[in-house]
Design a protein that fits this description.
There is one protein chain. This protein is of the alpha/beta class. The protein has two domains: about 140 residues, HAD superfamily/HAD-like (Rossmann fold, 3-Layer(aba) Sandwich), CATH 3.40.50; about 70 residues. Strand 2, helix 6 and strand 3 form a beta-alpha-beta unit. Helix 1 packs antiparallel against helix 4. The longest helix is centred in the middle third of the chain and has 22 residues. The relative contact order is 0.19.
């Protein structure tokens, strides 16, 4: 059955935001003497969704202080979006090819303000019918809430909806929602467990094989 809807994850799939987000988080956590490592970031945060700020709570840092640091991180990250974030290799080509052939949407764990800044700065909004952002659901990936909400907004059967992800927890969320999920690993997620994915792609351009040419 041909796919009639694509749900794209954003961070690490459409755009390479992880270096900027890691750098901003690492910087603010260091104020409380916590050294955030790239191994923990990729192996725990990106794989399971555990927040790095939970590490501060585990060390007994006051919740008010943790929230203050989270807000500082968000500001640091926002200021870096325009100058540091780039579109993933091949994504523009794929979006151009599929645009107006198959409806596409974004389902992201990012705050709407951050995601809006990215899609507008990189001129991506025109490709998508709607965007589901972090404020739109209660439980983050790997919980399926975000993809269930996205699915409720389209008129297609589950097997006609294709999710494109880059992380283990993203795949888990999509599959828990009963959706087909392809994964495009990046350098931060190569070691994730993608056994649940329906297909692992080496490059975004491989996705075009699933759609008939014009």
């Amino acid at each position: 059955m041909p796919y009639k809807q694509i749900f794209w994850d954003c961070d690490g799939t459409l755009v390479d935001t992880e270096p900027a987000f890691f750098k901003a988080t690492q910087q603010v956590l260091s104020k409380e003497g916590l050294e955030l490592t790239i191994d923990w970031w990729t192996g725990v945060h990106l794989a399971t969704g555990k927040s790095s700020f939970d590490l501060l709570l585990d060390q007994g840092v006051d919740r008010k202080r943790v929230q203050q640091l989270r807000e500082e991180r968000n500001l640091l990250y926002q200021t870096s979006l325009s100058r540091e974030v780039v579109i993933m290799d091949g994504i523009r080509e794929v979006l151009d090819s599929l645009h107006q052939r198959v409806p596409m949407s974004v389902v992201t764990s990012s705050l709407r303000s951050n995601n809006d800044h990215i899609v507008d700065a990189k001129n991506l909004r025109k490709y998508f019918d709607f965007i589901i952002a972090r404020e739109d659901f209660d439980e983050d990936k790997p919980d399926p809430a975000c993809y269930l909400q996205a699915y409720d907004r389209v008129p297609h059967d589950r097997e006609q909806c294709l999710v494109i992800e880059d992380t283990q927890r993203g795949v888990q969320a999509a599959k828990a929602a009963g959706l087909i999920c392809f994964v495009i690993p990046n350098k931060y997620t190569l070691n994730h467990d993608f056994s649940m994915a329906d297909r692992i792609l080496d490059h975004p351009r491989d996705l075009l094989e699933c759609f008939s040419p014009l």
